[in-house]
Amino acid sequence: MSNIFIDQNCNLCNTYGEWITKKNTNININDQSSLCDKEFNLDTLVFKHGNKSYYFSDAVIYSIASVGNVYKTIYVLKIFPKSLRDYFYKLLSKNRHRI
Question: Which of 36, 63, 84, 99 has the smallest count of CB within 10 Å of its CB?
């Protein structure tokens, strides 16, 4: 079973949580407040699968890929450097409450 930790005060995050749980019933959605302080202070979506944790753009990529089938094509985004992917993730994340 995998877990995604989202900001439940964010419409964008809640919409993502609803979408991913409809596609993958093996994912639990949790509030970020249940994370340890170190992870909570990152202020990012956190995807935990087994004993691995993913943050920022990796969390989005791996959580969508966990749905399977055609959604695994999201791995193509890994061709871009993590710093570039995370830059755009953080830009969106910074403005997520306005969306």
Answer: 36
pLDDT tens digits along 85-96: 999 999 998 888
97 closest CA partner among 7, 29, 21: 7
Please say whether the beta carbons of 75 and 65 come within 8 A: yes
